[in-house]
Every structure is written in structure tokens, then in C-alpha cells.
Specification:
By secondary structure, this protein is mostly beta strands. It is 5% helix and 54% strand. The strands form five sheets. The chain has a 22-stranded antiparallel β-barrel. It is found in: Cell outer membrane.
Length: 717
């Protein structure tokens, strides 16, 4: 952890000493200054010397914009962080729970176990501790939050470190690290619809000098849902070991496993054949009880860091993530008949496997030029994503027709299934990247970055389908991705910035001459103002952006394509996060986004996305009492607000539309003693009926959770 050297009511030495003591009592906080390169680097919260340790602040540094920890004010892009303290306060358990609290992010439910995530009109990508993982966020189950220290989100193109991806942004999931001092924490929770959860987190040194240290996290969830039949049993195990091989070299190893079994995974309701939404109980689940879904996830991470006397550091990271998904189900394929009340089902079953290997090697450190110190970073990363499946029932007419809606029990179970389709695919990407943060003058910083990328995608038929040769998909060679930004400190507290960011997406369509189209390009200009107050405990940001998605494939009218399509995404965002006064904590954000087709043969001028609201706000604040009659009590309240959304822009789809809504959440916790806290959370306090997704006539019309409660007992030592 980087300890602040600024004096806050006491000397910086006393602040550092007390910070080291707090690390033992609060394992989610960062470690001592002498291990700043081996631990997640944190800005030391302001500390007022008293008998009780203050709560960790919501305001943290982030690594998402440059591999190294930076205060949000130093990042010339829109960035939000959901800290471990925020996760604890709201009882968040999954990545979807956390991203649902992020300014400008829309979470769209796929089914009970996985979701899609959007910002600025496009899907988000993901990185794990800064290692890009293309295709690993949307539609994939993530490890639960007990494994992670914080969730970072950068909105807008992030091609410098990610390579190819959609321009919506990137989520960086920062895993927990071992601490030098012993700490133990755990919790048990019970909530609505038989929702039970427990976790334990233990860390500390394995030898006397703390050069070898470990951390282990275990969690388990056993729960039902507000809709009928469905239930989930899931466990997570995570362990990490950090070893200071020498004073300048640290090795880190981590293993994680998660196992999820869900019965009758819910994927939404159908609509009427006319297209209108059904008016049915939120408990309604059209999925047969015999349906099953299983996710098994494993991850291995190895990192080594070597620090040089010059101040430079060289880091090498390797990760392997394997996920297997089995499911069998029956889903509604038609709207509900207004005359008969009947629907048709299709039954299916499949085994899917996913494997992602990645390497990221980079060096960073100071450079002296023109009498000033600058920061430089150069690196290389490589990733390979392989997937395959064996399945039954997608193309074959394995149907159950004329089933009364509301009677999924009449759909018979799949028996003695013989898979009839198979496929394999492989996507690889590699790239060299570099970034220079040049300190031109005391108030002026210029950031220049560039990446050169190679991308290749291919697929083939596999057993039980006829085995085929590899079929070449999207491919790109030596693609150049630039980045540039300027930051100017107006005052000691305010920084104005402007940035240009880009990203690319290879395409497979052919021109009339037989050549492949140029890649799509996501290019964004962002202007903003960022503030940092109260020694960094309170942060603010205001940004306006203009994003263009160019070179989109358009038909030339003769079975070939041209690079003439274009989409525009414009908007602005505002966020305040941190501690405005002792005992208070806030995270408030607003986003406005308008995304439409600028050039498109069939859709010009129409909205590009309709399920993302134009207006959204995330408001959360709490008051913690440290003295008087209410000592030990913490009260919190928040509101998630969204404007209207619909399933599509055409008249037929516009019937599936919902107006704006606000969801109110609240919490109350009481510290029984220094170690034990009891906490009560209430979500959707006023029981607002709303949809988290609006889909087609067959499925995906998904209600949000009704009012629900959770009681948690937490202990830490």
C-alpha cells in the first residue's frame, strides 16, 4: 500500500503506524508500505486517531487504465470502482450484483447463472488483474465476489491493453492478495426465498519475517429465487501464496475453483403472440423442473515481479481459466396464443467447454528527460481462447407443441440423448503495447500510448458432426491502435482532461473483389473534469464523450459488402465517491447515453440499442456513528434509477416496453463489539415491479427481484 505522506491532523508517521495496525483487524485493507509491489496498492485512507478504527473509504486507486495504481484524477477516462467495503455494505455476492451498482452500466439477465453487461451502447470486456480475457465476460459465469478485492470499470474504448474488443469498456476484477499480518474474517447470511450464504477469509505470514504469506477464501451459497422451482447450490474455494524470493523478487501463485448446480435455470417469460407483455405473477417460471445447468470453473495464476534499483519493475503474469457448462432444458419458442393459451417448446441438451490461456509481460518505471521525471510502460501480451461443444436439439425438431402456458410439467424430460452436433473454435490474439506519461510541467501531463496487434479466429466441425478442416474466420495483422490524453491541473483539487481512445473488431464479410472488409473501428473523444478532496477521501468526475463505431459492414446489394456503416454514441456522466465528512460515505453517479445509426441502409437515424436506458443513476450513501447513544450503528440507503427501455425500435417490438423506474435499497448494521457486526439489508424496499430484460416473443422477458431481505452476522479478527 502507498502510504500518504500528507499530514492529516497528526504526523504522517503516526498515520502509517496506525494503518499497519488496522491491516490486522481489516483484512480487506491493503498492507504495509514496504510490500507495496507485492500487495494490491491502495491509497491510505485519512485516519483520525481514536479508540476505534475508521471504516475503509469507498475512494480507492485503480490499475485499470495503466497497469500501475493511479488515483482516478490521474486517469483521463471515466472510471468507477466498487470497493470491498461497498461490497460488504450492500451484501453483494456476484459480479452481476457489483456491476449493477456501477454508473453507466446496464446488467441484462441471460438466465439464473450468467448475464450480459453493457455501457455506452456496447458490451463490456473483462480483464483479470489486468490480463485481458476476450469473450470471457458476457454469457459466462464469473467467480463470486469473496475472491476479489475490488471491481474496476473503465467506460469507453480500451484497446491499448485489451487489443480487439467492443468499445463499451472493460471490467477489471482484482483478486485478493496475501497479507503480512494475520487476519481472519467470516460471515453467515440468511435471506428471502431460502437464500443462505457463508464465507471465511484467512490470511497471514507462514514464516517469522513474513516473506512467505498465504490467503484462503471459502464461500458457499444455497438458495432459491422469487420465481418457482429454481434453486442453486454453489461453492467457491480460492487460495494464494506470495513468496519474496529475494528482497527484490516476489512470486505469487493462486488457485481458484467454483462449482454451480442450478435446477430449472430461469431464462425469462414469453409474450403474447401479438407481442404484448404478459401480465402474470413474478413467480411464474415456464421452465420444466427437470431442467439442469452446471458450471465448473477453475483458474490458475502465476506472477513474478522483479524490482530494479532504478525504480523500474518487470512483471510476468500467466493465467489459465477453464470452464465447463452442461445443461439440458426446454424453452418456449412461440408467443402465447390469445385464443388457446398454448405455447410450443424446444428441448435441448449440451456440453460446452471453454479454456483461456494468457501471458502478460511488461516493464514500468521512471524516465528522466529535460530535467523532469516521467513514467513509462512497455509490454507484450498473448491470449488464446479455445471452446467446443457437443449438443442435441438446436436444429432438430425436438419439440413439445400445444402446451398450456403455465404447465411446464407437461413437457417430458429428455431421455437417452445422443448428441448430433459438435464444433471446435480457437481465437488467438497477441500484441505489443507501450505508454508514456510525460510530465511536461507541474500542472501538465501528456499521456501517449500505442499498440500493434495480431488477431486470428478459426473454427471447424467436430464429432459427433462431420469433422472438417479449420475454417478461417476473422483475422487481422499488425493493426495499430493509438491512445492519447492531456491532463491539466487547474488547482490543487481540480484536473481537466481530454483523451482519444480506440479499439478494433475484425470482420469476415467480403468485398466484391474477394478481399475481407477492414476491421470495425471504435474511436472516442472524451473531455472531463475530475476533482480530489479531503486528502483523496472524496473524488468527483464529470465527462462528456463522442464515440463513433465506423467501418461497419453494409450490403452492396450484390451479395457483397462495403465498409460504410456507422453508429454514434454520445453522452455525459457524473460521479461523486468517497467520504464527504467523518462518518459519511457516498457513491453517486448519473449517466446519459444516446446511441443511434448514423449510416445504415435499413436503420439510419434509429436507436442502435433500446434495452439500455438513456438516463440512469446509481445513488448510495450511509452514515456511521462512532460515538454517543448511536455508537456502532450504521445506516445506508440507495436508489437505482433507469428511464424507459424496450425490446427493439420497430413497431412490432415496441409493444414490449417499460417506463422508467426507481429501486430503493437500504441497510442497517450494528457493531456488537470490536469483532462482531450484525447487518440487515433490504432490497427493492417499495416492491417496484420492473424488468431487467425485454426480449422477443419466445423468451427473455425477465422480471427484476421483488422486495427481499438479508440478515448477516459478520466477525473479523
Amino acid at each position: 500500500m502507498k502510504a500518504s505522506t500528507k499530514k492529516v491532523g497528526t504526523t504522517s508517521v503516526r498515520c502509517l503506524s496506525l494503518g499497519l495496525a488496522l491491516a490486522a483487524a481489516f483484512p480487506v485493507m491493503a498492507e504495509s508500505a514496504d510490500q507495496e509491489t507485492a500487495e494490491p496498492v491502495r491509497r491510505l485512507p485519512r485516519i483520525d486517531v481514536s479508540a476505534e478504527a475508521p471504516r475503509p473509504s469507498y475512494a480507492w486507486e485503480a490499475t485499470i487504465a495503466g497497469k500501475e495504481p493511479l488515483a482516478p484524477r490521474e486517469i483521463a477516462n471515466s472510471v468507477s470502482v466498487i470497493s470491498s467495503q461497498r461490497i460488504e455494505d450492500q451484501g453483494l455476492q456476484t459480479v452481476a450484483d457489483a456491476l449493477n451498482q456501477v454508473t453507466g452500466v446496464t446488467v441484462i439477465s441471460n438466465d439464473t447463472s450468467q448475464s450480459q453487461y453493457y455501457s455506452r451502447g456496447y458490451s463490456l470486456g473483462v480483464a483479470y488483474d489486468g490480463i485481458p480475457a476476450r469473450g470471457s465476460l458476457n454469457g459466462m459465469q464469473q467467480f463470486d465476489l469473496p475472491m476479489y478485492e475490488q471491481v474496476e470499470v473503465l467506460r469507453g474504448p480500451a484497446g491499448l491493453f485489451m487489443g480487439t474488443n467492443e468499445p463499451g469498456g472493460v471490467v477489471n476484477l482484482v483478486r485478493k492478495r496475501a497479507l503480512r499480518t494475520f487476519a481472519l474474517s467470516g460471515s453467515v447470511s440468511a435471506g428471502s426465498w431460502d437464500n443462505y450464504h457463508a464465507d471465511v477469509d484467512v490470511t497471514g505470514p507462514l514464516n517469522t519475517d513474513g516473506s512467505v504469506r498465504a490467503r484462503a477464501v471459502l464461500s458457499t451459497t444455497d438458495r432459491a429465487y422469487f420465481y418457482d422451482v429454481t434453486d442453486t447450490r454453489r461453492w467457491l474455494a480460492y487460495g494464494t501464496l506470495d513468496w519474496d524470493i529475494t528482497a527484490d523478487t516476489t512470486l505469487s501463485l493462486a488457485l481458484a475453483a467454483q462449482d454451480d448446480h442450478t435446477r430449472a435455470s430461469f431464462s425469462g417469460l414469453p409474450a403474447w403472440e401479438s407481442g404484448e407483455l404478459l401480465d402474470v405473477s413474478r413467480r411464474t417460471n415456464p421452465v420444466p423442473e427437470w431442467s439442469r445447468s452446471t458450471w465448473r470453473s477453475h483458474e490458475l495464476v502465476a506472477e513474478i515481479e522483479h524490482r530494479l534499483e532504478s525504480g523500474w519493475a518487470i512483471r510476468s503474469k500467466f493465467s489459465r481459466r477453464e470452464q465447463d457448462n452442461f445443461f439440458k432444458d426446454a424453452y418456449v419458442t412461440t408467443g402465447v396464443s390469445e385464443t388457446t393459451g398454448m405455447v410450443n417448446y424446444r428441448r435441448r441438451q449440451g456440453d460446452f467447454d471453454h479454456r483461456h490461456d494468457a501471458v502478460d509481460v511488461y516493464a514500468s518505471g521512471p524516465l528522466m528527460a529535460l530535467g523532469r521525471e516521467h513514467q513509462a510502460l512497455v509490454g507484450f501480451n498473448y491470449e488464446r481462447y479455445r471452446s467446443g461443444y457437443e449438443r442435441y436439439g438446436w436444429k432438430t425438431p425436438n419439440r413439445a407443441n400445444d402446451v398450456p402456458f403455465g404447465r411446464p410439467d407437461l413437457v417430458s424430460d429428455l431421455q437417452d440423448v445422443v448428441y448430433d452436433q459438435g464444433s471446435k473454435s480457437q481465437t488467438s490474439q497477441r500484441g505489443f503495447y507501450g505508454q508514456l506519461r510525460a510530465s511536461i510541467a507541474d500542472p501538465l501531463t501528456v499521456v501517449l500510448g500505442a499498440r500493434v496487434s495480431w488477431f486470428n479466429d478459426k473454427s471447424r466441425g467436430a464429432s459427433p458432426s462431420a469433422r472438417t478442416d479449420w475454417n478461417q474466420g476473422a483475422r487481422e495483422s499488425s493493426h495499430f491502435t493509438p491512445y492519447g490524453a492531456v491532463l491539466y491541473d487547474l488547482t490543487d483539487n481540480l484536473t481537466v482532461y481530454g483523451s482519444y481512445a480506440s479499439i478494433f473488431m475484425p470482420q469476415t464479410q467480403l468485398r466484391a473483389d474477394g478481399s475481407v472488409l477492414d476491421p470495425r473501428e471504435g474511436r472516442q473523444v472524451e473531455l472531463g473534469l475530475k476533482g480530489e478532496w479531503l486528502e483523496g477521501l472524496l473524488q468527483s468526475s464529470l465527462a462528456v464523450y463522442d464515440l463513433r463505431d465506423t467501418n461497419r459492414a453494409q450490403s452492396d446489394g450484390n451479395d457483397y459488402y462495403v465498409n460504410t456503416g456507422e453508429v454514434s454514441s454520445k453522452g455525459w456522466e457524473f460521479e461523486i465517491v468517497g467520504r464527504p465528512a467523518p462518518g459519511y460515505e457516498v457513491q453517486l453517479g448519473y449517466a446519459y447515453s444516446r446511441v443511434k445509426y448514423l449510416k445504415d441502409k435499413n436503420n439510419e437515424g434509429l436507436p442502435f440499442q433500446t434495452w439500455e436506458p438513456k438516463h440512469s443513476a446509481r445513488l448510495w450513501g450511509l452514515r456511521s456513528f462512532s460515538e454517543g447513544a448511536l455508537e456502532g450503528l450504521t445506516l445506508g440507503v440507495g436508489v437505482n434509477i433507469a428511464s424507459s427501455s424496450s425490446a427493439g425500435s420497430s413497431d412490432a417490438w415496441a409493444m414490449r416496453r417499460q417506463g422508467g423506474y426507481a429501486i430503493t435499497n437500504a441497510m442497517a448494521s450494528y457493531r456488537i463489539n470490536r469483532q462482531v457486526t450484525v447487518q440487515f439489508n433490504a432490497n427493492n424496499l417499495f416492491d417496484r415491479t420492473y424488468y431487467t430484460r425485454l426480449g422477443g416473443t419466445n423468451t427473455y422477458n425477465t422480471y427484476g427481484e421483488p422486495r427481499n431481505f438479508m440478515l448477516t452476522l459478520r466477525a473479523q479478527y
